[in-house]
Amino acid sequence: MFPGCGKPAINCEIDHTKPHGEGGRTEEENLGPACARHHHLKHAESRRRRRTRRRHAGGAGPGRPPAEPTVRGRTQPPAADWKCEQPTPGVFLWTSPEGRTYRVLPEPYLDVPPPAGPATPGAA
What we know:
alpha+beta
């Protein structure tokens, strides 16, 4: 469901458009396929926000600067900030960090009719 991703849905993870931890419900209107790479990219932003909130919750204390979000001692780069909305089931609107919007539609679904056979039993 990420713009330009060619991974078939059958090989993807099920993603909550609005994260479950932020009140997103597990229902058709809030679920869609995402390859592992794009699924984790999308949710990296909310994980960083939660880590930063926990670090800042107690305050920096007198005489100390506020804590910077870090991983293994290094300051984290700014989050990717990709935003995703699902206005109707299966239709995803992605907004890039630069503000560009991409609409991703579901793949066409073809119902394959059963093979043609004789119209009447016993007809040749």
